[in-house]
Amino acid sequence: MSARIQPIARLSDVLDRYDAIISDVWGVLHNGVVATPGAQQALAAARRAGKPVALLTNSPRLPPLVAQQLRDLGVIEPCYDALVSSGGVTRELLEREGAKPFFHIGPARDAGVFEGLSAQPAPLESAELVLCTGLFDDETETPEQYRPTLEIAQARGLPLYCANPDLVVERGDRLIPCAGALADLYEKLGGSVIWVGKPKPLVYSRARQALEAVLGQPLATARVLCIGDAFRTDIAGANAEGHDVIMTLAGIHGHQIGLDGSRYDHDRLESLAAETRQRPTYCMVSLVD
């Protein structure tokens, strides 16, 4: 039988067991509307204790734009050493595709993923692949509305690059659909998906390389601590990489465990871990020092 998930009160309770941190962004440092109280201060304190921090986000934006979004939301503490985004890694992979035209599904604000590359957006009928960074309007649309478009792409045998594997993300007190929901539907239709981001190993490798560059030495798997709020991405990715992981509960699963202030149903959390077959090492409502 698996050990129960260990609740902790603060990051400093376990920090001395680790040499570096890989932290999620959305759901840990902010909820899409405001910065999470205490979270940036906790990571800043870890850095002062000699534990470098790499932020690893499934955002389809390039790292400089993610950094600007953090500042806009009030994350101004010096709380990280490196920032790895799904959008940044997706751009690298698209560059390898050369000049292949692609059909872009996603808002115009995500154009930085492909601006300046040899490959350029094209109509679906002439595209050789699909790039999905999100819904065109995630405030009003649903993934199911994209079924006809995805059916055409699948019939043509087009691979789909998913630049954000999240199914949903918090935006204040709402859950908003992400590119992962479209990619999930595409796979169910029989399409081929290249998932770029957590829980896939490539982005964790990038984050560890950044941390090792700061430390000037290799990192032992057991000495890396991950932090995140989602079973499907953050917890699954950390489990697959062999890293311990703190799950922040005031994220996308809060409504499933009856979260009310600092109270929640721990048995329900354990049930979710069993259902998803993904188990965090520790849990806390929000990240604090």
Number of helices: 8
CATH superfamily of the largest domain: HAD superfamily/HAD-like
Strand content: 15-25%
From the spread of the alpha carbons, the general shape counts as globular
The largest sheet has its strands arranged as 1-13-12-11-2-3-4
Mean pLDDT: 95
Q: Cα distance, first to last residue?
A: 31 Å
CATH class assignment of the largest domain: Alpha Beta
Write the layout of secondary structure elements.
Blueprint: E1 6-7, E2 20-23, H1 39-48, E3 53-57, H2 63-72, E4 82-85, H3 86-96, E5 102-105, E6 129-132, H4 147-155, E7 160-162, E8 168-171, E9 174-177, H5 179-188, E10 193-195, H6 201-215, E11 224-228, H7 231-241, E12 244-248, H8 266-276, E13 282-284
Parallel strand pairs: 1-13, 2-3, 2-11, 3-4, 5-6, 6-7, 7-10, 11-12, 12-13
Antiparallel strand pairs: 8-9
Describe the structure.
- The chain is α/β, with parallel strands linked by helices and 289 residues long.
- Helices cover 30% and strands 17% of the residues.
- Strands 1-13-12-11-2-3-4 form a 7-stranded parallel β-sheet, with helices on both faces. A 4-stranded parallel β-sheet has the order 5-6-7-10, with helices on one face. Strands 8-9 form a two-stranded antiparallel sheet.
- The chain is globular.
- The mean pLDDT is 95.
Give short descriptive properties of this protein.
alpha/beta, four-stranded parallel β-sheet, 8 helices, Rossmann fold, 289 residues, 30% helix, seven-stranded parallel β-sheet, 17% strand, 13 strands, 2 domains, single chain
How would you briefly describe this protein structure?
This protein is of the alpha/beta class and 289 residues long.
